[in-house]
Design a protein that fits this description.
Elements (H helix, E strand, L loop, with lengths): L3 E2 H9 L1 H7 L8 H10 L8 H11 L7 H12 L9 E8 L4 E8 L6 E5 L10 H16 L8 E5 L4 E5 L3 H18 L29 H4 L1
Parallel strand pairs: 1-3, 4-5
Antiparallel strand pairs: 2-3, 3-4, 5-6
Helix pairs in contact: 1-2, 1-6, 1-7, 3-4, 4-5, 6-7
């Protein structure tokens, strides 16, 4: 069976029922992620908004012209702080022990050993819970493969031009392990219940998962 993706672990932790419903859905790369990804390849060197915008138009030719303003604003935010150049980009890593896999967006020789790229604005303080979960999962994989002693990763909030170091705590690793175990049960045929603290506000599936018999997204839409 294919490894569980780190993004799936994060999604299942947020709402296992939504994860269940979306399993067979097609996932399209959001424009914001495309913008952040192309900017990330230039971090650590002088940032040229015109070049990065041209990158975006090559990668995603249908991107509207008005998005150039957003790209330039993000580039300006990132240019305010010096960043390290990465030794490698988009490195796939895996934990055979836990059956999960993911990608280190940027990889470094010293701590924090990797960077997780985010296309969301940074919180006022600290790191989002979901991003701490991502960091825990990525370190599971890195520790088992190319960086046994690593303890931290960077969370790079590209729109804000902010990078924060994350050292996962036992709670983060515990949440990750619980989500992994639940995904294993779902893959085996278990249908999860909606948790009491499910993030239903704004969820496009909120009207489809209130009953006791959930259906896959492909059956609902």
């Amino acid at each position: 069976m294919a490894p569980i993706s780190i993004s799936s672990v994060v999604a299942c932790h947020a709402c296992p029922l939504r994860y269940y419903l979306e399993q067979e859905a097609d996932h399209i790369e959001p424009p914001r992620y495309t913008f952040a990804k192309q900017i990330s390849y230039h971090l650590g060197s002088p940032l040229d908004a015109a070049i990065i915008w041209e990158d975006v138009r090559i990668i995603a030719p249908t991107t509207p012209d008005e998005c150039e303003k957003t790209v330039r604003e993000w580039v300006a935010a990132c240019a305010k702080t010096d960043r390290r150049s990465a030794d490698e980009y988009d490195v796939r890593v895996e934990s055979a022990r836990l059956g999960i896999a993911g990608v280190a967006d940027r990889l470094f020789e010293d701590e924090p050993v990797a960077a997780i790229l985010r296309s969301t604005d940074a919180p006022e303080i600290g790191i989002y819970t979901a991003d701490r979960l991502r960091a825990a999962c990525l370190l599971f994989c890195l520790n088992e493969t190319i960086a046994p002693g690593a303890t931290s990763v960077a969370i790079e909030y590209v729109p804000s031009g902010i990078s924060r170091t994350c050292i996962p705590q036992p709670r983060d690793r515990r949440n990750a392990l619980r989500a992994i175990r639940l995904i294993e049960k779902i893959r085996a045929g278990h249908v999860p219940h909606k948790p009491h603290d499910a993030p239903c506000d704004g969820c496009y599936l909120a009207d489809h998962c209130t009953g006791t018999s959930a259906k896959r997204l492909t059956d609902l839409l």
